[in-house]
Amino acid sequence: MNSMTYQTLLYYCYSPIENAEQFAADHLEFCNSLGLVGRIIVADEGLNGTISGTEEACKAYMEAIYADGRFNKTEFKIDVVDEPSFIKMHCRYKEEIVHSGLRDPKEIDPNRQTGIHLEPKDFLEMKDQEDVIILDVRSNYEHSVGRFKNAITLDIENFREFPEKIKELEKYKDKKILTYCTGGIKCEKASALLLKEGFEDVYQLHGGIIKYGKEAGGKDFEGKCYVFDNRLTVDVNEVNPTIVSTCKNCGKTTPKMINCANPECNEHFTQCDECGWELEGCCSAECKEHPRKRPYDGTGYYVKVPQPVNLEKISKRKHKNFPPKTTEA
């Protein structure tokens, strides 16, 4: 029996990072030295990560983050897990830690202006008031498996589409807008965008759904919360839990979310066990017949297969005096 204790940490921090691309490379080396696995995005504007490892390794990581004066306002959401929630460690540099969809991402800066942060107990007290609108700023596949009771959801495939949807919300400009997402990071930019577009009473659930579950019992959050690791979804509501998602194929109520076994589709969708085994983890009969279909084991989670090394690209990097990059899964 495995007696090792593991944790999964969800966090973000908007704080300027000088030479962020080099920071990402150094940070990856540091995480590997601790034996951590996970996914971290580094940008000039800050950090966004979910990592997993032993309790000792996670503690050492948090201490290192806090010791760096740039990130001492970071708040970690900590889950105890039976096993690490990732297979490998990735730390990548990107233009933004959350893609805003703006031509000029510098139009908004959560360090200068963002919605009023509500702690979970305050969000709980406000959410049912008559002059309040609860706004889910997450993508379709996320809110399809779980969302707050009476929340407004947007038809978006990813957050970069959020700016295009703001016009649909103009009828709520006289309301208090309570935004929420998984851990709070998307709300930082969503609320800033709403303020920029003339919304006046804008709030955000500090720490997101995950913190709300831990500190407010998850009351009135219906279904499960989608997370960006091997677990796919986690329970949130300990007070009045319900299931709101249905099987894509038969319409039966089910809380289970999977990835399509066809790697060229890889759609996130909810599917009951019966349809899962019948379609072998695929979203459709067409995907079931795909020649590269991955074996279905009932979980619907698949480790990415490493891509072949591109020798031509490596040769070009060497020619430019760049060290060759390892193939990532």
TrEMBL record:
EC numbers: 1.14.-.-
Biological role stated in the UniProt entry: Catalyzes oxygen-dependent 5-hydroxyuridine (ho5U) modification at position 34 in tRNAs.
Entries under SMART domains matching the protein: RHOD
Entries under Pfam families matching the protein: Rhodanese, Rhodanese_C, UPF0176_N
Catalytic activity of the protein: uridine(34) in tRNA + AH2 + O2 = 5-hydroxyuridine(34) in tRNA + A + H2O
Family designation: Belongs to the TrhO family.
Source taxonomy: Bacteria, Pseudomonadati, Bacteroidota, Sphingobacteriia, Sphingobacteriales
Name recorded for this polypeptide: tRNA uridine(34) hydroxylase
Domain Rhodanese: 128-221
Record gene name: trhO
Keyword NAD tagged: no
One annotated GO molecular function: oxidoreductase activity, acting on paired donors, with incorporation or reduction of molecular oxygen
Keywords: Oxidoreductase, tRNA processing
Keyword Oxidoreductase listed: yes
InterPro entries, A to Z: Rhodanese-like_dom, Rhodanese-like_dom_sf, Rhodanese_C, TrhO, TRHO_N
One of the protein's GO biological processes: tRNA modification
